[in-house]
Amino acid sequence: MKFLTSLLFLLLFSRPFMGYSQDLDSLLLPENEPAEKNYVTGAFKSTRVIMSHSMEMLKKGVLDFRILHRFGPVNGGARELFGLDGPASVRLGLDYAISDRFTLGIGRSTHKKELDGFVKFRPIQQGTGNSSAPLSLVLAAGSTINTAKWIYPERKDVLVNRMGYYLQVIAGKKFSDAFSFQLMPSMVHQNLVPEATDDNDIFALGFGGRIKLSKRIAMTADYYYVFNPFQYQFQHPLSIGIDIETGGHVFQLHFTNASGMNERVFITETINNWTDGGVQFGFNISRSFQLKKKNID
C-alpha cells in the first residue's frame, strides 16, 4: 500500500497542475545565454545532484518545491518487497531565489523530525571568452534542528544540543554538453556527538557528476569521503541515479546507501553498506514556479 501510494503521488506530480508553472528551461538559467554574457549553464538540470547541492542556481523569483523520498533497504528481501514496503524517509523542501546568485531554502525530514535551512550563493560563474571564469564557485551553509522526542535521559534537553551546522564549497565545471563534474569540500559541526571522544567537527570531500544520455535523460552520481567519521559503524555515502526532465519537473530516480536527506545527516550518519544490499531506492521530484515576473526593458 505504501508503494502504491507513493507511485500515485509520483504520477500526480507528473501532470502540470498550476497555470503559472513554466517549462524547466525557463526556470533554471538557460543553456544558451546571449553571446555577450558568455555564461556557461546547464551543467546540471537541477539544483541538486542527488543528495548534494549542485553548482546550478534558480533564476530570480523562482520558488522550487522539492520532494525527496526513499524506501527501505533492498536487502529486506521479497517479504518487504525489496524495501518498497518501507520504512520510508521523506523530506519536503521549499527553495526561493532572491537573485540569480542567491537562494534560501527550508525543509523538514521524517528522520529525527528534523528541520533544516540553508543559504546558497554563487560568487563566480563559469564562462567562455576573454576574462571569463574557467569554473563555477558556489558557497552553501545550513543548519538543522532535531525536533523528535528526546531519547538521551543522561543528557540535558536544550536547544543547543539539538542543533547542527554545515559549510560547503562547490567548485564545478561543465566540460562539454555531455559531461559536468564538481568537487564539494565540506565541514559539519554537531554540538552533541555520540561519544565523548568523537570530534564535533567532521570533514569530508564530495564528488558529483552528470553524464548526458539524451536530451531529457542523464546519469548522475555523488559520493562523499569522510575523513574523521564518528566511531560507530560508518559507510561513505554514495548515490547513483537517472535524471528525467519533463517540462517543469525533474524526476531523479536513484539508489543510495544514505537515508539522511540533508548534509548533516548523510555525511555523519550513513551506516548502510552497498556490498550487502543496504541500499535504498528513492526519487526526488522538483516542481518550480516563477513567482516574480521578470522586468522587461
What does this molecule look like?
The structure is a single chain. This protein is mainly β and 297 residues long. The chain has one domain: Porin. 6% of the residues lie in helices and 43% in strands. It is built from 2 helices and 12 strands. It has helices at residues 2-13, 263-268; strands at 62-73, 89-99, 102-109, 114-124, 136-146, 163-176, 179-190, 201-212, 217-226, 238-246, 249-256, 280-290. It has a 12-stranded antiparallel beta barrel. Residues 1-5 and 7-22 have low confidence and may be disordered.
Number of strands: 12
Helix/strand order: HEEEEEEEEEEEHE
Number of helices: 2
CATH architecture: Beta Barrel
Number of domains: 1
Name the average pLDDT. 85
The gross shape turns out to be globular
Report the CATH topology name: Porin
Task: Measure the end-to-end span.
Answer: 53 Å
CATH domain class:
Mainly Beta
Q: What portion of residues belong to β-strands?
A: 35-45%
The spatial strand order of the largest sheet comes to: 1-2-3-4-5-6-7-8-9-10-11-12
What is the radius of gyration computed over CA atoms, rounded to a whole number of angstroms?
19 Å
Largest sheet: 12 strands, antiparallel, barrel
The low-confidence runs, each spanning 5 or more residues with pLDDT under 50, are 1-5, 7-22
CATH superfamily grouping: monomeric porin ompg
Percent range of helical residues:
under 10%
**Structural class of the helix and strand makeup?**
mainly beta
